[in-house]
Every structure is written in C-alpha cells, then in structure tokens.
Design brief:
The chain is an alpha+beta fold. The protein is built from 54 helices and 29 strands.
Length: 1882
C-alpha cells in the first residue's frame, strides 16, 4: 500500500510537474467506459519529459493500484524548466480554424485503421504488463483484420474538407499495402486520388446501420468525423437534439420550441433506467435522482457550454424534473419556490448578447436538498464571477441585464412613478448596445412575472421597491454629466438632475457625492491629500461605483433567495445543478474569458478523474485486468495559472503596487514563461497579448484591463458616503461585516462561495482573481464529494436558425467541451460492448450448426468469435459482456451482411429456378395439348376411305342385332324376377298396414277417452273462469247502477233547491229594488240640501280663517317691532353697563356675565315665540288645505251617488227580463208541483228557518264597523236598507257554500266508490291468478308425491311434510270460508248503511214515487248478490275464489288480508322448496338407496332483525374482517350487499329513522375504512366495488319508484321500502363507488404497467424477426433473455387474472367492460409513449412485433367475449403507429396513404415516428427529410392538438348501469363463516 499512499500525497501536493498523472489517487480516472488495454506509445512526449523519465513526468510514481507496483524516475521539480525540449521543435503556431486541417481529428483516432498515435502536450501514459496487450498496430500483422481488407471497394471513408470539415467518399478500387494513393469517388460524382503514402489512411465511415445511434460509443469507428456525422444525422434528419457520448449528454440547441418537456414526458422518464429511453435531459436528471435515492450519495449535474448553447434552459429543465418527481405532500410548495428562483436570477443575471438573447452572465450552483423520503425540502444557491462590466458597458447589439429594461418598460405604472424612470433609450447604461428591445420578448410582462416570483418566495413589496430603487439609482448614476474643467480636473454640477435623483433615491448628501465623484483622497503617513481627477478618471470612478452597487445588490438578492428557500429540517442528501460558462474564445479575450477558461480547465480535470474512475469500476465488474491508459492531463495548464508564481499570483502581486500597470505584469509573464513553458507563448505580431495552450484550443488574451478588473477598485470616500446613507439597504451593502453563512449544512463541508475577507490594512484588498480561485476550489471540493453527471450544450449555428448544422462551429465546441477527448480515449480501448444475449441474437446467422448445439450461449459466443476473429487481442470476454476494439463490430457487420447477401442469392436462385421450371412445365403442357389435337386431326384425315366406311357400317349393323337379342333375353329374366318380388313385397306391406290400422284404432279409442277427460277438465276451468268474470261483471254493474242512481238523486235535489232559492230571491230583490229606488230619491234630495249647507258653512269658515290670518300677521309685526325696541333698550343698557364696568372691573365682569346670560335667555325666548308663531301659521295653512280636501271629497261623494243612482236605474231596466225568467221558472215549477208539493212546503219552511237563523246570527255591528265614518254620515234614518242588503248577500253566500260543500262531499264519495270498485276488480284478478297457480301447483305436487311414494316407500318424512302442508291448506280454506261469511254480512250492512244514508240526505219525504222505484231497483242487485251467494254455496270448486273476491271489498279488513297474503306467499315458497327438494331427492335416490329428507324450511319475508347496538359488530364481521376469497366460492354475487339491504329493510319496517340513518352512516364509513386499509389489494377493491354497486342497485330496486319497479317481480315489489326515501344515500353510495372504481383502476394500472413496455415492445413474440444493434455505454436495463423479463404472455396472464377475479366477485359485465377498456387504453398509451421516446424501437421489424402483440390482445378480447367493450378502439393509435413503421415511405403515394390511414395519430406523433425510424439491416432505408416534410405539409390542414405524448393518467367516465337483482331476499341465507349468528331472519 505504500505506492498508493505516495500517489495520494503526490496528487495533493502543489509541486507537481507539468505532465503529472492523477490515476494513482483515491479519485481514479475514467473515460466513457471504452478503454484500451494496449500500450500506446506517444509520438509527441510531454513538455519537461526526458528519455529516461517516467511517462508521468514528475517524481511521483505512476502506480497501478491493483498490482501495487510502479516506476519512478528523475525529473524537474514542479514549475521548473524542462531538461530538453520535445523532439521536432516547439509546438506549431496557432492556425485559424477555417484554414487549419483537422489535426486533432487524427489524434483522436489513436487506434483506428490508418491513424497515427498522437499524444497532446501533458499526456499521461499508464503502462500494462509486457505482452498482455499488444500495440495498436497489431491488427495490421496478418489475421482476418488486416488493414488492406478494410479499405476495399464500395467501403466509404472520411477525408478532410476546408468547408464541411469532413467529406464522405467511396472507395472505387481495393487498397493494397504499398499503394501511394487511394482511389475515391466523392458524393458529387467527382473522382479523387487521395495520397496515402506519407500521410495516414483516412478514417473509415461506419455502416449506415450504425448511423444515428443514441450513444456515440455504439459506433464501430470512433473518431471525429463519425461523431460529427452521427450528431448531424440525428439533429438535422431525425430532429433529435440529445445524444449520449458515454456518460456525457450532448445537447444541441434547436432554436425552436419542442413538445418534449411536458409533464407526460417527465412521468415517462420517471423510474426508467438511463439506457431504456432516448437521450434526454430528463434521463440524466432521473439517473441522478435514482442514484441519490439508491446510494444515499450526493449528486451533481454539470451543465456547460458556450453562450447561446442552451445551458440555462437545460439547467432549468433539470430542476423542474426534480421538483416534479419529488413533490412533497406539504402545503409549503417548496418545489414551486425552487423553480421560482430561476426567473429572478435570470432577470438580474442574464442579458442579451450577440450569441444569445438570454445569456447567463454568471455561474450558478444550486443545491436542491432532499429529506430521507427523497422529497425536496429546500435549496441553496451559490454564484460565481458575475460580469459586472456589463452594467456600464455593452457591445453593439447587446443589452444590459434584463431587469433594467423591465423597470423602464414599467416606468409609467403609478407604483414606479417615484423612481422617475423613462424609456430605456434615455439612459446611458441601457442604450450603449443600440438594441433595447428583444424580438418576441415583452419586458413589461416579464416585470410582472419577476414581481410574482418575488412574492412567491415571500419577498414582500417593500423589499421589491427597495431593490427597484437601487436599480433605478444605478441608471440615474450613469446619466450624471461629468464635465472637464481642464486637462487634469473635472466637475459635476450639484444641480444635475440625475445626480439629485440618485441622491434622493439612496438618501445621500448631494454635495458630497458631486465632490467625490471628481476628486480622490490620498492618505500618506504624514498628510491627507485631495487630488482632482480627469474626466476619464471620474467616469471610471462613476462606473466602478455603479458596478460595486450592482454586485452587492446581486449578492443580496441571492442571499434573500437562499433565506426564502431555507428549511427547518435536516438535509439528508442533495443534488447540485451547476450552470456555468463553457470554454470561450473571441477575437478579443480579456480577464473574464481568462477566468472562465481557468474554471473550465478545472472542470475538465475533474471530468477526466471521474471518467477513469467509472472505467475502473467497469473493468472490475467484468473481471477484466485493469490496464494503464494514456490520457491527456491538463494539470500543467492549471499549474501555469494557479501554482505558486503562476499567472494569478503575478497578477495579484502587480495589483499590490500603486503604480502597477498591465504592461509591467505582461513583461513579468514573458520573462518567466517564454521558452520555459511550452503552454505559454507570445504572439508574433503583438506585445500586449499572451497565448495559453488550453485543453481545447490556444487562446490569445489582451492584457489591457487585467489589473483594473482584478482590483475592482472603488474609492474609499465614495464607500464611506454610501455607508452613511439613511437608506438602510444601501448602507448595509458596505458595512464591514462578513456575508452571513448559508443556513444549509450539507453533508460535506463547503464554505461560502463569496467569502468577504477583511483587509489587514487599507493597502491590501482581496482581488477578484483570488476570490474566484477560492470559490472555484470550494466548488471543486463539492463536485469531488458528489457523483457528477455531465451535460454538454452545443450551439449548432451562430444565426440562431432552427435545426441548421454548422459543422465548423460544432467541431470547435466538441473539442472545447471534452467530448472528442473522451472519444479519443475510447478509441484506444474497447468502444463496442455487447452482452452475450445481444451478440447471440444479432450474429446467430454466422454460427455453425455444431456451435448452436451447445447449451451455454456464452460458450457459443466465445467459440464463434475465436473462429471469426483469429486475433484474440481484438476482443475480451467479460463476465456479462464482450469488449471489442474499434472496427471489429464493423467487420462483424460486414461478415453478417455478406452472409445475408449469400443467403439472399441462394434464395433468389431457388425461387427463380422454381419459377422458370413452373413456366417450362406450363409451356410443355401447352405444347403436348397442341400436338395431341394436331395428331388427331391428321390421323382422321389419313384413316377416312370408302372401304373403311363400308366395313364400319356392316360392323354397326351386326352389333345392333346382337345387342338387341342380348337385351331382350335379359329383360325377360328381369320381368319374371320383378313379378315375384312384387308379390312378396305387396303381401308384406298389406300385413304391415293391417297391423298399423289396428294400432291406430286402439289409439283413437284411448285418445277419445283422454280428450274427453281433458275437455271436461278444460270446460270446468273455463266455466269457473266465466263464473268469476260474470260475478265480477255483475258486481260492477250493481255498483254502477248505484252510482247512477245517486247521481240522479243529487241532480234532482240540487235542481229543486236552486229553483226554490232563485224564485224566492228574485221576489225579494224586486221588492228591495223598489224600496231602494224610493229611498235613493229621497236621499238624493237630502244629500243635495246638505251639500249646499255644507258649502255655505265651509265658505264661512274660510272667511274666518282669513281674518285670523290677518290678525296673526298684525301680531307678528307688533312683536317684531316690540323686539326691536327691546333690543334698542338692551343696547342702551349695555352702554350704561360698560360705563359702570370701567369704574369697577370685578363688578363689571360679574354683571356682564349675568347680563349676557339674561340676554341669551331672552333671545332664546323670543326665538321660541317666533317659532311658535310660525308653527301656528303653518297649522292654519294645514287646516286650510284640509278644508279644501274635505270639499273635494264632498264633490267626489256626490259624483259617486249619482253613479249609484244610474246603476239602480239600469237594474230597474232589467226587472222585466227577470219577470220573464220567473214566469218560465213558474211554468217549469208547475210541471214538477204535482210530484213535489209536500217537498216544496218543507223546503220553503227549511229555507225560511235558515234565513231566520242567518238573520239572527247576523252581526249588525260588524257591518257598521265595515262602513267608514263618512259613509255613516250619509246614512239617514232609513239606512237600515244597507243592513238588509248586506244580510241578504250573506245569506246567499252561506247557502251557496253549503250546497258546494254537499256537492263536493257527494263527488268525493263517488270517487271513493269508483276507487273501491277498481281496487276490488284488481284484487279479484290477482286472486284468480294466485288460485290458478295454486291449483296447478297442487296438481303437480300430487302427481310428484304419488310418483315418489310409488317409487320409494322409504321417505316417511316427506309424506308427513306433505300431509302437514295439506292440513295447512285445509285450515286456510276453512279460514277463507269463515272470512267470506263475515264479508257477506258486512257487505249487506254496508249496502243498508249506504241506502240509509241516501234516504237521510233530504229525500225521505220529497219523491215518494221515485224512491219506491229506486228501492225496487236496489233490491234487484241485492237479490242477484244473494243468488250469486247461493250459487257459490252450491259450487264448492269456485267457493274459495268468490270468497276471496268478496273479502277484498272491505277496506277496514286490510290487515287481515295482508296476513292471508303472507300466508299464501309462504305456502308458495314452501311448495317451490318442496319441488326443489323433490328434484334433489330423485337425484340422490338414483345414486344411493337411502337418503335422509331435509326438514321443512322456515318461511321468511326478506329482512334481517338486528339491534342498534349490533351495528358495530355487523360492520366488523361483514365488512372489515371479511375476506373475499372465502365469500365468492358458491355464493351469490353481492351477498354482503344483500345482507346489508335486508338490515336496511328491517329498519324501514320498524319506521325508525334514527336507526336507519345510523346504520347507513356506519356502513358507508366501514366500506371507506376497508378500502383505505386495503388500498393496494386488487381482490379486496374488486370485491367491494361489486358489493357497493349491488348495494346501490338494491336501494334503487326496492325504492318504490316506478322506473325501477317495472323490472321487478310482484313479490319483489311487495318488498319495497315503505316509510323512507333513501335517494340521498344512493348519491353517497354512488360517489363511494366511483371513488372505489378509480382506486381499483389505479391498482390494476400499477400492477400491469411494469409489464407493458417489456412485453409489448422489448419481447420478441415473433422469434428471429428483431435484430439487435449495439447500444453503447448506456445499456438497456431489460435483458433480452426470456427467463427474467416480462413477456406478452405475462400481460395476457395478468389480464386474465384481473378478468377472473372480477367475474368471481360478481362485478357487473358493463363495469367489467369499462375496466378492460381503461386497461387497454393504458397498454396502448404507455406502449406508444415509449415508442416515441425510444428511437431504437422505431423499425419495420418492431412494427411487426407490435402488430402481432395487438392481435394477441384482440384474440384475448374475443375469447372473453368483450368485443363490445370498445377496448379494441383504444389500441387504434398504437395499431396505426405499427402500420406506419411497416409501410413503405418513399413516394408521393406513400405519403398520401399515410395521410389517409393515420387518422388517430396527431401530426406531431406522425412526424416523430418518421424522424425516429431506424433501419435494422442494410437493406432498409432511412426516411428522407423531404418525405417527412411532404407528409407534414399534407397534415398541416388537420386541426388536432400538437401533443406528442398520450396522457396515461386519463380516465374514461365511468357509468354504473342499473341491473336489478334476480335473487329473492327471502331465499338468501347467511353462511356461518360470516359470524353473523346474532342476526335473525324475519
């Protein structure tokens, strides 16, 4: 262990050499996971290294910690001069990028074919054991991988190009060793002879199948052109901005908003492994979050890149990801606060530059703190190197910080008026760049957003206004005019407007500020000197003050944000997000670029250390011996900058001298480093600059301004003025106290990023460089204590054009950010790594049959590789992976494509041969057929002659006679045989027919007797039915006649009474009208006389009042005169009193007071008198108005009397008409008088008595009270007419009301009788049905019992039971007979009572003749009823039915009827049970000879009796403790729900509302509790969803509502609830069911979601179709092996489990279909979302796999009979996506077909799939960008949502269909397992 300790000491010492290695430290180095084990000799040794030195170049040993050995050699001390310059002279001078050939591109290809191994300055070489790993050129020595084999015809290479950096060319002629040129064909058709004799061979191009990979390390050839081309293809063609490069995420800025950052994308990446999805910033964030949660180790996400590359946005998205996936349940909204800090810091720290509209001008490290549950609890922010110079200076087309423009845009708002701001063009500090507006940015809206985020962080409006005041003061300070008084003197006017505003805002002394802006104080040992400044010096002092104020304000805002994000709990872990500037090089580079590049050097070193550490872990994990790698170490550059007497030390030293200048400092650098350090150079054409060779490039720095920016000087007097400000915020900025330490306490000790060092004296201050170095040291300490994750942002072009790729700019940034350095290191080792399963699946086509016979796939892979690649150093076998050197995968791909090409040739050969053979056979057959016909025709022509014809004719004649003879002979034989057969057959048929006729005759006799018996039986049943109908019809006729008679009686009575009353009233009214006319005439005369008298009296009164008014006015004048006299007297008295007061002061005072009081009292009295007089005058006026009003009323009364007289006259005119009507009535009366004379007398007497009673009961005083006083005055002594008139009206109203009430009573009685009749008829029909069913059942029971008794005599219990049933039936019949006898008597009493009532209602003595007729008619139905009763007695078969009908006619016997009905129902149930028992007994008798008969079951009515104190036990046993698996077996669905409803029925039966309410409440609470306790138990949720649904349906079914009752049986309708409406509880249960359903769906989704992507996408359901490609460093987590992963079968099994469980629990089929539809939507959405985010899955073969898996799901639906569930439709988007992967994508017709077919996919989704399409084999082609644009143009007219991801959280609306329960409540039994023995069935 001693060498390791030495290495650690060497690493932490400060005296390291220029090329010191850091690999032996405790922080081992790592690359992309792709390292060479070979020994690589550098062609360009490091500076300071001699031939005898160690590769590390220093004294520390270069140690292999796994072997414990090392080598040590002499060398120079750190920082000393080298002993020898490197061979070949000094490093070449810098060449402009546009002309410089790709030098480092070839350096990167250290081990690729044709590349020379190069080592940059400061490289460190770590050696392995001799012979363990041969040199890089070993592959050129024989074997299948000889160099010449790779440079063959049709292969492609990359050649350097001045415009495009690299160009592709195709080899047209095989290259042989020794050739001087390589024959190439460029892509534009140009032929080129590329020289290769002195120069190396050009790098080979990867096969097209490997282009566009997610990970650059998956490329077979790893070099700069391959990296550049892969990035270009992904960015330009596939529109993919993220790419992995090992552990680095390369992010290209698209300059366009992309739909890949929504919450759906975040959820898609959450929980996924980094290699499972496409590269994304969310994948890096998820990896950091997962490692933090898994390892409890702090993490860092390092985002770097140049300005405009998208660093800020990437960091923002990473923080948003952490905030989304780690949301806490608290109400503090810490996540929102963490995200809200971004807009604030961007407003005060970001600005527009020429490269970026929102460029971060500071570095930021944000620590997001997590608790033990990995939820965000707070955050802390540290900032680095704010660009303060931007406050006072901006280049052309640049802006100051955003906050200034936001303030100016909001200056017109009232709350900003006091800041006295204007447009941004009015201020020097905001108009320098000439660009005050950013296109597409609303500064006013951004200001509102900034204020909103301030408020969200708890920073109130007062704090915000203080910040805005300081910002406004800075703007006004920049407008202060400084005038030159002379060459060495300047001044500021104290009346300067902006100076006054500046002092006003910051509460400063105006004169002092004006003085010290133009003067400075120099303090020496003996005196203090005030020295004036020139105008330039004063302007610099003003600008320095502005920068100082803004810097303090920035730090203060960051401090307040940290306080707002402070948390009280303990930090468990944190994730840091570093958003820092990348490597920068401009035309003019100054102090800021120097610090930025220094920071990037430190970060690059940290990156190298981490890279090599991961590589060590990978090698150890795979059990591969560790090799020491040659890698670039930038420690010499870091030492040049920060070591003792380095650039920063010399800069700080020069800053100590008051007369120090940039030129002196630069001369020191020249003296110390020129020709002594190869990393420092002097430009040839400049004496004010210096060059540093950074890891990325050479950078030339201008020394001008270095000292000034490093000092950051502000004169002390100005600081003192600001300290003394009364504005507390400004004063606090400049107090001598340290910045408060952050309240956070991370697990590693990190000091503040900006420590305020108190100067020991006024001469020494901490410089900017030293501050930055210390903060950078703390940052590196933090990063080294965490696990870093790297994001490198690349700017694709400088014009900010979307998806435009500038190769030169991209290459420059790739070199600067270290990506190409890692690629160079990767190329040295094993860049391609395949798991054994992946290799076996991809290259099984290259395996031989005997190799495939082995069982171990690992051994198969080893055997195949040893056969294919004979050089064993080109690969290594790890524990789980195979490691390949660069180019080996391309060679294997070449072998595979050759094999496939040969196989294609063989297949084509056989198919073409088969087609040709088939064609030949068709031609041959056609030729034979033609020959056949041709030869036949020719033969016929040759054979036809005269002799031949004669011979043929003779032969035909001979044949005719011979054949005739033979046929006749045969016919005779057949005729004889046929006659014999017919004889025998006819005899047989006759005998058979006779036997049949005999049987039919006997059957007819039997049928005659049977049909006669059936006809008699049918006739008897019809006769019974007809008699029942006749009886009911006769009863209805009788009731109808009664009703008609009653109506006639009522009509006659009403008509009679109305005639009598109208006649009497008419006579009275005539007499009254005559009297009224006379009285009115006299009254009119008297009223006129009274009116005249009253008018005269009123005129007299008016004259009197006028006289009184005149007198009052005279009195008033007299009083006023008297008052004046008294006042004059008082004045005289006052004069006298004043004279007396001069004599005696005390006396005067007392008397004056007394007199004043008296005067006031008298004045009050006079005023009161005046007011009283005014009141009297007012009263007089009111009396006058009243009199006038009374006169008007008199006139109105007179008019009213005249109108009444006219009305009376009109009424008198109607008297003749009334007389005519009376005559008509008299004639009608004479017609009836003969029949009703006695009745008329009685009625008149009755009316007279009623009238007397009304007159006696009439209250005269009541009428008087109703009359007004004025009306009484008008009544004379004859005023009794009014009382008589009122009494008559009262009497008529009472009579009318009496008759109306009687009429209503009669109508009610008639309606009641009608209702009774209808009710009776319904009951009769119902009982007829019951008795018919009973008779049928009785017959079937008799038959069944007789059969059973005859077959088996061993069932005595059954006989006894049947006999008991018969006894019960007999008892019931006797009870019915008794009840019928009672009903007959009661019916007779009812009829008598009704008849008696009708006679008493005014018809006893009125119509004697009619009553006799009516009584005769009434006696007829009574006789018919008696006859019917006698007939019923004679017919015992119909007796029970007739008695039951009569029984229903008594409403007061409903209770007894209900008892009888219940007994009948019980009897029916017993009969049904007996039938069931009989059936079971017959079955058991057949199986066994002896069987016990069950006892007779007790009859129930479907209720559960319980006590209120048992409610808790019911809930506990039936809900909380019930296990679904013990219930669903052999039980009806929803059994607990039915039991609960039976308890509800019992509470309703008792009419106990409190009991019912308590039971329903405790039941719902119990269900909620069991759901809460088993929220993840699928079976429990399914069980209680089913029971809640059944409980809800029971409440509906038995609610008594018509819409639910129509589906019930009559018995179920009788079980409806009687007293309570439970619609409110139905709503509660419905809400609860919806809640359970959502939880139920969530549990199913959680169970099946992990299976979807492996089963639907990754698993090969069609074996051998998919082809795997290399995945690079980021391996997919899911293995390809079928043993440990989910398959399509797993999904189907899970679905079947869900389906069977839901069916077992009795879930309604409609609900089950909705659940299946939701699951299928999830499967489709998750699969499609994963397809969008996995480019490796977008291939034609994968489309076939997906379509096959969809067919499996459709078959499952068909198997379960769920086609109607609409689940198949939810898979339509996925089905179309699979079709889109398979369809041809080349021509316009293809584009049109895609447009017409893909209707369920959005435009964004279709374009994403087309851009992500990835060929698997060489014969597949990529989708061209022109085709994608063509499809996109067609789809632009679609109006759909531009959304890429489907919402997997979407839930379809659930509906609960009403399905009535078919189970009778009275038949339900409680299993003993429920432990509900305390319940009793009622």
């Amino acid at each position: 262990m001693r060498p390791v300790r030495q290495a650690r000491a060497a690493l932490h010492s400060q005296s390291l050499g220029h090329g010191q290695c850091r690999l032996g430290s405790v922080r081992p180095c790592y690359s992309l996971g792709l390292f060479s084990r070979s020994q690589v000799e550098p062609s360009r040794p490091s500076a300071g290294r001699t031939s005898s030195q160690s590769p590390c170049g220093g004294r520390a040993a270069c140690v292999n910690p796994w072997r414990g050995e090392g080598s040590q050699s002499g060398g120079t001390d750190g920082g000393g001069e080298p002993e020898r310059s490197p061979p070949g002279g000094p490093a070449p001078a810098q060449v402009p990028a546009r002309l410089r050939p790709a030098r480092e591109e070839l350096e990167l290809e250290r081990d690729t074919p044709g590349a020379q191994p190069l080592g940059p300055p400061g490289s460190c070489q770590l050696r392995s054991e001799p012979g363990s790993f041969p040199a890089a050129r070993s592959k050129q020595r024989g074997g299948p991988m000889a160099l010449a084999e790779l440079y063959t015809q049709y292969n492609r290479v990359w050649i350097p190009d001045s415009e495009e950096v690299w160009r592709s060319a195709e080899i047209t002629k095989n290259y042989k060793t020794g050739d001087r040129v390589l024959h190439l064909l460029l892509e534009d058709g140009t032929e080129l002879n590329y020289p290769v004799d002195p120069a190396p061979l050009p790098p080979l191009r990867n096969p097209d199948i490997l282009v566009g990979e997610n990970d650059l390390t998956a490329l077979s050839y790893l070099h700069e052109p391959a990296v550049l081309h892969n990035l270009k293809v992904r960015f330009v063609e596939s529109k993919l901005i993220y790419t992995y490069s090992g552990i680095i995420l390369v992010a290209m800025n698209p300059y366009k908003q992309l739909p890949i950052y929504g919450d759906a994308i975040i959820h898609a990446y959450s929980g996924q492994n980094m290699g499972d999805m496409d590269p994304h910033i969310f994948a890096v964030a998820e990896e950091a979050y997962k490692q933090m949660a898994r390892n409890n180790r702090n993490q860092s996400v390092i985002v770097s890149g140049e300005s405009g590359a998208g660093k800020t946005v990437s960091a923002r998205y990473a923080m948003r990801y952490f905030a989304t996936v780690s949301k806490s349940n608290s109400n503090a909204h810490v996540e929102d606060k963490v995200l809200a800090s971004n807009p604030i810091t961007e407003a005060v720290g970001n600005a527009k530059t020429t490269r970026n509209d929102n460029s971060s001008r500071f570095g930021k490290y944000t620590e997001i703190s997590f608790d033990q549950r990995h939820q965000i609890i707070g955050a802390n922010m540290r900032t680095y190197l704010l660009e303060k110079s931007r406050v006072v200076f901006q280049s052309e087309n640049e802006r100051n910080y955003h906050i200034f423009y936001q303030l100016c845009a909001s200056s017109l708002q009232p709350k900003f008026k006091h800041l006295k701001l204007g447009h941004a063009e009015e201020f020097n500090y905001t108009r320098m760049g000439g660009s005050t507006v950013i296109e597409g940015v609303d500064d006013r809206a951004d200001m509102k957003e900034t204020q909103k985020t301030f408020t969200l962080l708890g920073l109130k409006e007062d704090f915000q206004m203080d910040v805005f005041k300081i910002l406004a003061a800075i703007l006004h300070l920049g407008n202060v005019q400084i005038k030159a008084v002379s060459d060495d003197r300047s001044s500021v006017s104290p009346e300067d407007k902006h100076l006054n505003i500046f002092c006003e805002l910051l509460d400063l002394d105006n004169d002092r500020v004006a003085q010290w802006l133009c003067n400075r104080k120099i303090i020496t040992a003996s005196e203090t000197v005030i020295k004036p400044m020139t105008k330039i010096q004063a302007l610099n002092a003003r600008d320095a003050l502005a920068k100082k104020i803004y810097s303090h304000l920035f730090d203060f805002i960051v401090e307040r944000i940290n306080k707002a994000l402070h948390f009280s709990g303990k930090q468990h872990t944190f994730i840091g997000v570093l958003d820092i500037y990348g490597f920068e090089t401009f035309d003019v580079n100054s102090f800021e670029q120097f610090c930025i590049n220094y920071a990037n050097e430190k970060l690059q070193q940290q990156f190298n250390l981490h890279v090599f550490k991961l590589e060590q872990e990978e090698y150890m994990k795979e059990n591969i011996p560790w090799t020491l790698i040659d890698f670039y170490d930038n420690q010499p550059v870091i030492d040049l900058i920060e070591a003792k007497m380095g650039i920063l030390d010399l800069l700080d030293e020069e800053c100590l001298f008051p007369q120090g200048t940039d030129e002196n400092w630069l001369q020191k650098l020249y003296n110390n480093y020129i020709n002594k350090n190869p990393l420092f150079q002097k430009p040839k054409m400049s004496n004010t600059s210096f060059i540093i060779q950074h890891f990325a490039d050479k950078v030339e720095y201008k020394s001008e301004g270095f000292l000034e920016k490093n000092r950051d000087t502000v004169y002390e007097v100005l600081i003192e003025i600001l300290k003394n400000s009364k504005f507390h915020l400004c004063a606090n900025f400049f107090q001598d106290h340290p910045v408060p330490v952050s309240p956070f306490k991370p697990s590693i000790k990190v000091q503040s990023a900006r420590p305020v060092v108190k100067p020991p004296n006024k001469q020494f201050r901490t410089t900017v460089g030293s501050k930055f170095r210390s903060s950078l040291y703390l940052l590196m300490e933090t990063l080294n204590a965490t696990t870093p994750h790297y994001v490198r942002c690349i700017k694709p072009n400088d014009e900010k054009l979307p998806f435009e790729f500038d190769s030169k700019r991209v290459v420059q940034q790739l070199r600067a950010c270290g990506v190409l350095e890692t690629i160079r290191i990767s190329a040295q080792s094993y860049p391609s790594r395949w798991t054994y399963i992946e290799f076996f699946s991809r290259y099984s086509i290259l395996m031989m049959q005997n190799e495939l016979s082995l069982n171990d796939k690992k051994e198969i892979c080893k055997t195949v590789l040893q056969r294919l690649i004979q050089d064993s150093n080109q690969y290594q076998f790890g524990r789980t992976k195979i490691f390949f050197r660069a180019g080996q995968v391309a060679y294997l791909e070449k072998l595979r494509s050759d094999k496939l090409r040969q196989a294609c040739i063989v297949i084509q050969k056989n198919i073409r041969g088969w087609l040709q053979r088939k064609k030949f056979l068709r031609i041959k057959q056609a030729a034979v057929t033609i020959q056949q016909y041709f030869r036949g025709q020719r033969t016929v022509r040759q054979a036809v002659t005269a002799t031949a014809l004669k011979q043929a004719w003779a032969a035909i004649v001979i044949q005719k006679y011979c054949r005739g003879y033979l046929i006749r002979k045969l016919c005779q034989l057949i005729h004889v045989a046929t006659i014999k057969i017919q004889a025998y057959v006819r005899g047989f048929l006759a005998r058979k027919k006779y036997r049949k006729m005999l049987k039919e005759h006997k059957a007819i006799i039997l049928q005659k007797h049977a049909r006669a018996w059936l006809a008699r039986r049918r006739f008897q049943s019809i006769r019974r039915f007809v008699l029942n109908i006749q009886l009911s019809y006769r009863v209805q006729r009788l009731q109808k006649k009664l009703e008609d008679q009653n109506k006639e009686n009522h009509g006659l009575l009403e008509r009679l009474t109305s005639l009598a009353s109208t006649h009497a009233s008419d006579l009275d009214t005539i007499h009254k009208f005559e009297l009224e006319l006379e009285k009115l005439a006299t009254q009119k005369r008297t009223s006129e006389e009274k009116g005249k008298k009253y008018k005269e009296e009123s005129e007299q009164k008016l004259s009197k009042l006028e006289k009184q008014n005149a007198e009052l006015q005279e009195q008033k004048a007299f009083l006023e005169q008297k008052l004046q006299e008294e006042t004059e007297e008082m004045k005289d008295k006052m004069d006298n009193l004043t004279k007396q007061l001069f004599a005696d002061v005390q006396k005067e005072e007392r008397q004056r007071i007394i007199l004043e009081k008296n005067f006031q009292n008298e004045k009050r009295d006079y005023e009161k008198e005046i007011e009283s007089l005014k009141g009297e005058i007012k009263a007089v006026k009111e009396e006058k108005s009243k009199l006038e009003y009374q006169i008007q009323e008199e006139h109105i009364l007179q008019d009213g009397l005249q109108m009444e007289v006219e009305q009376l006259k009109k009424q008198a005119m109607t008297i003749p008409e009334l007389q005519k009507e009376i005559e008509l009535l008299q004639t009608q009366k004479m017609d009836v008088e003969k029949l009703v004379q006695s009745q008329k007398r009685e009625m008149r007497e009755k009316i007279s008595e009623v009238a007397k009673q009304f007159i006696e009961s009439y209250d005269v005083e009541y009428v008087r009270s109703r009359l007004a006083t004025e009306d009484l005055e008008h009544l004379n002594e004859d005023g009794e007419l009014w009382f008589a008139y009122e009494g008559l009206k009262k009497a008529t109203r009472v009579l009318e009301s009496q008759y109306q009430s009687e009429r209503e009573n009669y109508e009610k009685e008639i309606e009641a009788l009608n209702f009774k009749v209808e009710h009776l008829s319904q009951e009769i029909i119902h009982f007829q049905k019951l008795f018919r069913e009973e008779n049928d059942i009785n017959d079937s029971i008799r038959l069944e019992v007789s059969r059973l008794t005859s077959e088996n005599m061993m069932i005595p219990d059954l006989k006894q039971q049947i006999s008991e049933l018969q006894k019960q039936k007999m008892d019931l019949e006797t009870r019915l007979q008794a009840q019928a006898a009672k009903m007959i008597g009661k019916m007779e009493e009812m009829s008598n009572r009704m008849h008696h009532n009708l006679e008493e209602e005014g018809q006893r003595g009125t119509l004697e003749a009619q009553t006799e007729i009516h009584t005769k008619e009434k006696e007829k139905p009574i006789l018919t009823i008696q006859e019917a009763n006698n007939h019923l007695k004679k017919q015992p078969e119909i007796e029970s039915e007739a008695k039951s009908k009569i029984k229903q006619e008594a409403p007061h016997l409903t209770v007894e009827n209900m008892d009888l009905e219940e007994e009948l129902d019980m009897k029916d149930r017993v009969i049904k049970k007996l039938q069931d028992q009989v059936k079971t007994l017959t079955k058991t008798i057949e199986k066994a000879n002896e069987m016990d008969v069950p006892a007779v079951a007790k009859e129930y009515i479907g209720m559960m009796e319980y006590r209120k104190e048992d409610e808790a036990r019911i809930v506990q046993n039936l809900i909380l403790d019930l296990k679904p698996r013990g219930v669903v077996v052999n039980m009806i669905p929803g059994l607990p729900a039915h039991i609960l409803f039976m308890c509800v029925r019992y509470a309703d039966y008792l009419n106990d509302g409190d009991m019912l309410k308590s039971f329903m409440s405790i039941t719902t609470l119990g269900i909620k509790q069991v759901i809460k306790e088993h929220s993840e138990d699928f079976e429990m949720l399914s069980f209680w969803l089913s029971n809640t649904y059944h409980f809800l349906n029971c409440l509906k079914q038995y609610s008594g509502e018509e819409e639910f009752m129509k589906h019930n049986t009559p018995r179920q309708n009788m079980n409806c609830l009687k007293h309570f409406d439970l619609s409110e509880y139905r709503q509660i249960l419905s809400d609860l069911a919806i809640r359970i359903y959502h939880q139920f769906i969530t549990v199913m989704e959680n169970n099946i979601q992990p299976m979807i992507v492996p089963g639907m996408l990754e698993y090969e359901s069609l074996q051998g179709i998919s082809g795997l490609k290399p995945t690079g460093f980021r391996k997919r987590s899911s293995s390809i092996d079928d043993t440990d992963t989910y398959t399509m079968t797993s999904i189907l099994q899970q679905l079947s489990y869900f389906y069977s469980t839901m069916c077992q629990n009795g879930l309604d089929p409609e609900l089950l279909k909705q659940a299946v539809k939701q699951l299928f939507f999830l499967i489709g959405a998750v699969t499609l979302n994963s397809l969008f985010l996995r480019k490796d899955m977008c291939s034609c073969r994968k489309g076939m796999q997906i379509r096959c898996n969809i067919s499996y799901l459709e078959e499952w639906l068909k198997e379960k009979n769920l086609q109607s569930s609409s689940a198949k439709e939810t898979l339509e988007p996925l089905s179309q996506a699979a079709w889109l992967l398979q369809v041809k994508k080349i021509t316009d017709d293809d584009a049109k077909e895609i447009y017409e077919h893909c209707t369920s996919l959005s435009v964004v989704q279709i374009v994403k799939i087309l851009n992500s399409y990835t060929p698997i084999d060489d014969f597949e082609k990529r989708v061209s960008p022109s085709f994608v644009r063509k499809v996109q143009t067609m789809l632009n007219n679609r109006e759909d949502i531009p959304q890429l991801m489907l919402d997997t959280k979407y839930l379809f609306q659930v509906t609960f269909p009403y399905t009535p329960s078919p189970h009778a409540l009275e038949m339900i039994q409680i299993p003993s397992s429920f432990k509900l023995g305390f319940l009793a069935r009622v």
